[in-house]
């Protein structure tokens, strides 16, 4: 009976961790379209002079360092792509310019140590994946 209780407790705790995890979704769902672009590019918001993103394409796929912007011009996110998939160190920002989250992505999943901050730059959560 004790083993069943421990199993159910472990299952409950693991399910709770997944549902409270700010980035538990598959990060490769954000692939974007493959294009005919090659090389460094700047993308602008429609009907605007404001940058939406800057980065590098290789054979039509995002590859290398990319930076994304809010309409107000502040950085929204920055990190690396490999074959159109997020890979490596990523950092997201709140609209006020302060860091929202930072950590490493490997094989479309969060990996290693991640930190999450509120809009006043207070550390609110740390997760080791």
UniProtKB/TrEMBL annotation:
Keywords: Signal. Residues 1-19 form the signal peptide. PROSITE patterns: PROKAR_LIPOPROTEIN (PS51257). SUPFAM superfamilies: Histone H3 K4-specific methyltransferase SET7/9 N-terminal domain. Pfam families: MORN_2. The keyword Aminoacyl-tRNA synthetase does not apply. This is MORN repeat variant.
